[in-house]
């Protein structure tokens, strides 16, 4: 036994040494022309028109060598030559020529077709091409005229590390709800509005899902950017070429504010970035003239923020009274890179006599995140606001499956690994507000920064303590692990609120370089 003690001690020291070496993430590097189009169709996107029973809009991209776009569409059958009954539709062509400062130049043709007069509740097969270079045949189904049971998916911000980690999220969503009728994207699909490389990541991450399940996207703040320094921020130059959405919104906000009817549900998309007063006038009219049983509104900036130091008070004061007035069922939001779900109390005049208000609900508000960027939760929940937060999460990628079945709308939120994280049911009453059934007890326990794998890079406690002791009044604001000369170092920023220093610190805690940040 004595002979093994030195070996054991050596291995222990070796292990402790390795434990101090942080893991450096190796981000993928893409070739300069990786995102460039060819003569073969790519970025195939399907959207519903305003009437999901009869309208499909199809968009795709090619190189500028392709001068003509065609869609062939037929009712899908189990016989492989279903294409014998296909109809042909010629596409509108749009030249896209991206030549912006600090962006890779890309020229492309975008092709779009609006197909009307389709049959309801019918599975179609379509393909896109130029008559010679074709995509595969792709299935998509129209809505039923009767209020059959259906599900749809809702996703918050993808934004960062899209191909790396958002891909697993959207694919897990497809696994959980392969027959989803459509998919809501609540803004910030990418990080930099006009960076075509990021849009390539988004399309590759979703792959065939984007072409099979109609998307219902609204723009977030990251879909807006200035073309030149000093100019106002404007909608991504890639937004309208890539999506062909209903144009039933207010003038000047085409394809960013719109609505769609799917069976007994009206889905309304708002643009929380601009021209808000104009949208409120339009929204009142759309809600007033709405005979659907269920109404869902989606927009990017939350009325009740999930994360610290965020409050969209002007937006809330403008929009909430309208959602209350028309008893909107759900508000699906993004922006805060955390998860929170809560609800408002119904307006007193809407509560029937003798009914306990606690069993009823006003609009249910959800904020969710699907991508790789994570923020801390607001520490005091929704205190001080006219709403109660019931469920929250940090550091967790999530997607949501919502199922409409007659008078019941069931909501389920799942993690990227397929675990149920949150659930509830809203029940539509003949008179008065909705009933609410809490189901989160069926889900896994809460996930927060303190009980999940570390999100930010961190300095070892002893190194941080020693560093701060030598810089009185300063605190660490940023840490990043970096490989340097076959070793790992810490890239650290410290600040006292006025002065900032960037440092390189080795694994033993020695400061290698130190520079003041101007």
From TrEMBL:
GO molecular function: acid phosphatase activity; metal ion binding
Keywords of the record: Signal
Gene3D superfamilies listed in its UniProt record: 3.60.21.10, Purple acid phosphatase-like, N-terminal
Annotated Calcineurin-like phosphoesterase domain residues: 154-339
Name of the featured protein: Phosphoesterase
Transmembrane annotation, as ranges: none
The Purple acid phosphatase N-terminal domain, residue ranges: 41-142
């Amino acid at each position: 036994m004595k002979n093994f003690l030195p070996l054991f001690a050596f291995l222990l020291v070796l292990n402790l040494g390795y434990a101090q070496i942080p893991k450096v993430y190796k981000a993928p590097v893409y070739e300069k022309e990786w995102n460039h189009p060819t003569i073969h169709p790519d970025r195939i996107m399907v959207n519903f028109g305003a009437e999901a029973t009869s309208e499909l809009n199809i968009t795709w991209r090619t190189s500028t060598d392709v001068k003509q776009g065609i869609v062939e569409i037929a009712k899908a059958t189990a016989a492989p030559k279903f294409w014998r009954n296909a109809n042909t539709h010629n596409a509108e062509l749009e030249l896209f020529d991206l030549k912006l400062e600090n962006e890779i130049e890309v020229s492309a043709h975008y092709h779009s077709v609006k197909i009307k007069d389709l049959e309801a509740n019918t599975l179609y097969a379509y393909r896109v091409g130029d008559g010679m270079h074709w995509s595969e045949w792709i299935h998509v189904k129209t809505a039923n005229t009767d209020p059959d049971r259906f599900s749809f998916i809702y996703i918050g911000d993808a934004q960062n590390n899209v191909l790396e980690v958002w891909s697993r999220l959207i694919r897990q969503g497809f696994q959980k709800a392969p027959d989803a009728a459509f998919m809501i994207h609540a803004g910030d699909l990418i990080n930099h509005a006009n960076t075509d490389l990021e849009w390539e990541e988004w399309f590759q991450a979703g792959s065939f899902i984007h072409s099979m399940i109609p998307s219902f996207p609204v723009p977030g703040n990251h879909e807006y950017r200035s073309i030149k320094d000093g100019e106002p921020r404007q909608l991504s130059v890639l937004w309208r070429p890539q999506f062909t959405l209903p144009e039933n919104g207010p003038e000047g906000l085409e394809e960013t504010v719109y609505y769609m009817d799917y069976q007994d549900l009206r889905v309304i998309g708002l643009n929380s970035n601009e021209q808000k007063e104009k949208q409120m006038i339009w929204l009142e009219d759309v809600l007033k003239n709405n005979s659907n049983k269920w109404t869902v509104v989606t927009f990017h900036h939350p009325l009740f923020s999930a994360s610290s130091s965020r409050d969209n008070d002007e937006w809330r004061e403008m929009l909430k009274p309208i959602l209350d007035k028309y008893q909107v069922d759900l508000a699906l939001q993004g922006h805060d890179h955390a998860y929170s779900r809560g609800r408002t109390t119904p307006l007193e005049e809407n509560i029937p006599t003798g009914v306990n208000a606690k069993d009823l609900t006003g609009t249910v508000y959800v904020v969710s995140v699907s991508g790789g960027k994570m923020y801390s939760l607001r520490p005091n929940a929704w205190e001080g606001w006219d709403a109660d937060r019931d469920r929250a999460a940090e550091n967790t990628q999530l997607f949501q499956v919502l199922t409409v079945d007659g008078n019941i709308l069931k909501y389920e939120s799942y993690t990227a690994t397929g675990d149920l994280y949150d659930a509830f049911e809203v029940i539509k009453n003949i008179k008065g507000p909705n009933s609410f059934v809490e189901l989160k007890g069926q889900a896994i326990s809460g996930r927060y920064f303190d009980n999940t794998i570390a999100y930010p890079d961190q300095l070892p406690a002893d190194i941080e303590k020693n560093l701060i002791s030598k810089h009185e009044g300063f605190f660490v604001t940023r840490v990043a692990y970096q490989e340097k000369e076959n070793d790992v170092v810490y890239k650290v920023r410290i600040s006292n609120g006025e002065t900032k220093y960037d440092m390189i610190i080795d694994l033993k805690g020695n400061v290698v370089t130190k520079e003041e940040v101007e």
